[in-house]
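2024-03-11 09:14:02 DEBUG pipeline.ingest accepted 1 chain
2024-03-11 09:14:02 DEBUG pipeline.ingest length=428
2024-03-11 09:14:03 DEBUG pipeline.predict start
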Amino acid sequence: MQNESVMNTRNLIQTIILLISTSFLPLRESRAQQGYIVEKIKHNYEILVEPQRSEIYSGEQTSITIDVHEFDTAGLKIQAFRAAVIISITGLVDGKVTPPSGSKIITDLIGIARLEYKAGDKDKEISVMATFIPEGSAIEYVDEATITVKPLEYEATLTVDGSITHTVRSSYSRKQSDGIERGNYSLEERSGASFYVPLKLDNSGDMPMLNQRWEYYRPLDINLTQFNASYMMQGYEYANSAGGFGHEATTIRIKKPLNRHIPEKGYLLKSNIILIIDKKTDKVVKIATGGFPVEFYWDETKKTTGRSWDPDGSRPINDFEHKTDDMSEIFTPGPVEDPVPDPTITSVSESLKTYLKELGTPLPANVEIPEDDSQKAEIPPDLLVEFGDGRTFFGGKGNKKVDNSEGSDINRKEMTFNWSVTRRKKPL
C-alpha cells in the first residue's frame, strides 16, 4: 500500500509538472491572410505594411508606412516605438526603394517607419515585406503589401486637398432676482479630404486675344486618398431658483462619418480640367477646376448626465441617444480665398488692341475701345500658380480665416486649399 501511495504521488507530481510546462509553451496562431503572427504568451503584436497608393504609374513616387504595435490585455493598441524592422523588396527592376531591400529601419516614437518608392519604366509589381522580431523572442511578425505599376497612359497628374475647421467657445453667467444661471458651450468641427487624379490630354487651343494656350485634360480616375470628418459638441448648464428648484447637466454630442464616397463620379470623369499657359513664357499660370465632392452620413451619439432637484430631493439625469442622419453631407475642397483681379489677363481693350495688332490690323488712332468695369476678370488666387517651374511641376494654395469672435466668446473658421500638377509629355 505504501509503495502504491508513493507511486500515485509521483504520478500526480509528474502530471502537474507536465501541465505547468505545457501551459507556458509558445502558442502561435498563424493568420497568413492578414500577414502576421500573434504571440499569446506575454505580447500580442501586429505589424502592418500600408502603401499610400497600391497602384501607380511608371515614373511616379509613393510612400509606404510600416506600423508596429502591440495590444494590452484590454485589447487597446500600444505603439511599439523604436522597433527594429527588416525590409525585403522583390520585383524591383529599374525602380528605387529608399531605404533599399535588406535594410534595418527603426520606427519612430509612435511606432511608424516610412519608405519611399519611385517606379521605374520596367517595374510591373513590387512586393514590400517587413519583418519584426521582438527583443528576446524568436517569433517573427511579418506583413507584406504589393504595389502595381502601370505603363504611362496620361500626360499629367493632379493632387487636390482641402480642409475646414470650425471652433466655437462661449460661456454665460446670470444672476436674477429668483436665482442664478450659468453655463458654457464648445464645438469643434473638422472636415478634410485629399484626391489623386491621373489626367489625359483631350485637346488644346490657343486664345490669341489673351496670349494664352488652354490645355483640356480629362480625369482617367478620381481617387479619394484621404478623408476625415469629426464633430464634437459639449455643453454645460446650471440653474437654481430661490424656491429650491434647479438642475445641472452636461451634454456631449459626437458625430462620425459613414459611407463616404464620391457622388456622380461618372459625370465628373467626363468633365475637363484646364491648364492655362502663357504663350510668351510657355509656363502654366493657373488652373481651372471645380474640385471634387465627398458625400457621407453623420452617425451621432448624444449623452446627457447630471441631476435635477426640488424641495423634496434630487434625481439623476442620464439620457443617451444614437442615430444616423437620413440626409447626407457633402464636403468639397475648393478655392477658399476671395476673388482678386486676374493678373494673367490684361484689360479687355488692351487685349483686343494687342490681338488686332498681331493680326496686322491695328485700330485707327482716333478709335478707342471703351473699357467696361463689369468685364474685368477675377479669380480666386488659390488657382494661380504659386510654386514650381510652371512646366513639369507646379501648384497653388489658399488659406482663409473668418473670425466672428466677440468679447470672450470665440467663433472661428479656418479653410485651406492646395493643389499641384505633375505634367509630362506622353512617351511615343
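2024-03-11 09:14:41 DEBUG pipeline.report Residues 156-200+215-271+290-334+403-423 form one domain.
2024-03-11 09:14:41 DEBUG pipeline.predict end
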